[in-house]
Structures are given as structure tokens and as C-alpha cells.
Amino acid sequence: MMRPLLLPASLSLLLLAGCAVGPDYQRPVVELPDAYRETPSKIAGETRSFAERDWRSVFTDPQLQQLIEEALKAGPDALLGAARVREAEALAGVARAPLFPQAQASLSTSATERAPGDRFTSTFLGGVGISWEVDLWGRYRRASEAGRADLLASKEARHGLNTSLIGSVADYYYQLAALRRTLAVTQRSADNQRHVLRLVQQQIRAGISSAAEEHQQKSALGATEARIPVLRQQIAETENALSVLLGRAPGTMTFAAPADLEIPDLVPPGLPSALLERRPDIRQAEAGLIAANARVGEARALFFPNLSLTALFGGVSTSLSDVLNGKAPGVASVGPNLLQPLFAGGRIYFNQEAALARLEQAVVIYRKTILGALGEVANALTAFDTTAEVMEIQARRVVSSREAMRLAEMRFQAGTTSFLEVLDAQRQLLSAETDEAQSLLDRRKALIRLYLALGGGWQEDAKRP
Hints:
Elements: H1 9-16, H2 55-58, H3 62-74, H4 76-96, E1 102-111, E2 122-134, H5 139-205, H6 211-246, H7 275-278, H8 280-300, E3 306-317, H9 320-325, E4 330-339, H10 347-414, H11 419-453
Helix pairs in contact: 3-4, 3-5, 4-5, 5-6, 5-8, 5-11, 6-11, 8-10, 10-11
GO molecular function: efflux transmembrane transporter activity
Membrane topology: Lipid-anchor
Main location: membrane
């Protein structure tokens, strides 16, 4: 009959009050400014951030919303991010497993002593073994903590990937809009140049213009027409890139140009301190810091004694069939094992030093990520303001160029100016309308950039440990 295992009172108390060695995590102190560098004075005191808005309220075009949802559900990048999270969940379970008792079935054999002349025999031992390494110093608790932090980092990486995916889909979508607008402008310019060419040809027949002017206009028309297939190629390439993001085969679909985007005049960035909770890359860096901190405690616990409890219940016999059928005489073994490391060639010491170095690296990465985020927001705010100014300038330029073109044609028909003035007006108008389309694209990209820089584009789906 097996007797109950009795442990010394001091050891029992130690088991009940087992501590976890190593430092408990504390977020590093980071000095943050009170406001961003380029924050407009009208919204300098606004604490709410534009990033708090759901991406559907920022990208309001119905087709764009549908494409983003498709990319988040079936896009290769989204599927890859989800698979990585599942891997991290499994690894977190692996890290937690040593906290629980382990059970396994065993079967072993050994030679039996025999007298001279006796036949060779073997003894078989089979049964169920149970072992449990008591986590006196929190080694496995720290490992489990690190595993949970790695899982959190994986989730934050997925958040970051999804926000990047949202921005990429919107970026390609607006590129298509700009390219199609530029194509329309170019085709309209070519039509206008053909009209002028016909006018020149009429004047040649009337003896007013020369063949040189006709060839000049044909050359200008050819230069404009040559841009059209290039723009169509760029449209096809952009559609193909968007298809890949959605997980579709390139060339199987086309996308209509989106409606005009409603761009707000002022976008409150909120407080810089909010980036610590809003930006997925900062949250991922902090999760890596938590994991590195926990692994310092895991490494430090290796210096202390290792206590494990083992038990074996089974049977022993010289007959294998008796052991397998449960007819062999019973045997039980229960007891603690205590192991104190004495010398390991410096492995334990250097393992701890490596863990401390990785913790130092994680702190630097965390601080660097915050500084990078602050820089991205400052640059995005500047770009958002600058693109608004450029759009206004380009709009005035287009109006002036159209009027200059109208007057140049009138003056040429009246014979008061040379044809070179008409050619120059044509080039100026095409350039102005093309630059206006680009300025609108830059404005839309600036909005995307600012929204993502502030940490927008994802929703909280799990509590932090």
C-alpha cells in the first residue's frame, strides 16, 4: 500500500508561496511632447484623434469599402496574418504546458541475473508515470508570460498588417481614379488638338497658314496621343496590383473610377501620448518588451534548485503478456527529486546575460518605434496641409490655362498672333490639368497617410494581459 508523501513544513510553505524571480514588467518612461509639431492652432487643444474613426467613415466610397472588406477577408496578406496569430496561440499553449503535471505510459525491459547454466531471462516493467516539476521560482510562469506576450505581439502585427492593407487598397483605388482622370484629360486635349489641326488645314487651303504650322500641330498631337497607351498600361498594372491584394487573379477584373472623396479641412491628431495605445507597431514593440522582460526571469530561475515530483504505477514480471494484461505484480514508486545546478560551463550565466541584452534591445526598439511614429505623424500633418495649398494653386492654374488657350485660339484665328502661341497654350493646359489630377491624388494619399500614422484602421478585439 502506498503511503502518502510527506514534505517538510518549510518546503510546503515554499510551494504555496512560490515566487517568480526576475523583474516584473513596467512600461519605460518616455518623454512625449504635449502636441505635434505641425498641429494647427484651431485644433491644438483637441484631445480626440481622427484615428478613432472607423475606416468606413473615412473611406466612404461604397465600392472602395467593398474592396477593403474583401482584402481583409480573403487577401493573401490577411490570411497570412491570421495564420501567424494561430501559430502564436499554439506556441503560447506550449509555453504554458510545463505548469501542469505530465503523464505518460512506459514499458522497459532489463536483463535478469541468472545462475550458471540457467536460461537467459528478462524482466519487464510497465505502467503509467506522472511527473510534475514544481515551479518554485516562476521559471515556467515567466515562460508562459513571455508566450502570452508573443501572442499579443502577433495580434498587434496582424493589426498593423490590416491597417497597411486598408491603406494599400485605398491607395491603389485612388491611383486608378487619378490615372483615369489623367487619361480623360489627355484624350480631351488630343480631341482639341485635332480640332486645331483641322482649323490649320482649313487656313492652309485658304492661303492663310503654312504647311510648317500643320506639321507642328501634327507633332504636338502625336506627342499627346503617345501618352494615351502609356496611361492605359499604368491603369492595367494598377488594377493587377489591386487584384493581388484582394486575392484575385490579375487581369480578371476592372474597377470603375471612384466618386470624389470628401476630405475634411481639419483633422484633429489628438495627443501624442495616445499613440502608445493606438499604433499597432508601438503596441507590438511593447509586447516584445514584455516578452523579453519575462525571459530574463526565466533565465534567472535556472540558477535555483529544481524540484520535481514523480510517481510510477504499474507492474513488473518476467512475462511481457502478464505486464500487458495487468496480471503482473503491482509496483509503485513516488518521491521528490531535487536538483541544484553547480557547474555548467557558464551556460546558465551567459544565458542570463543574453536575456538581459535582448531586454536592452527591446527597450531601444520600443523607444525607437515611438520616435518613428512621432516623426510619421508630424510629416503626415505637414503633407496634409501642404497638399491642400497645392490643390488650390493647381485649380487656379487650370482656370488660367483654359482661358489662355481660348484667347490664343481666338487671336490665331484673327491672325493677330503666331501659331507658336497656340502650341504653347496647348502644352500649358495639358500640363496644368495633369498636375491638378496629381494634386488631388496627393491630397487623398496624405489623408490615408495621416489616418494610418495616427493609428487608425483597426478595432480592439482582445484585452491586453
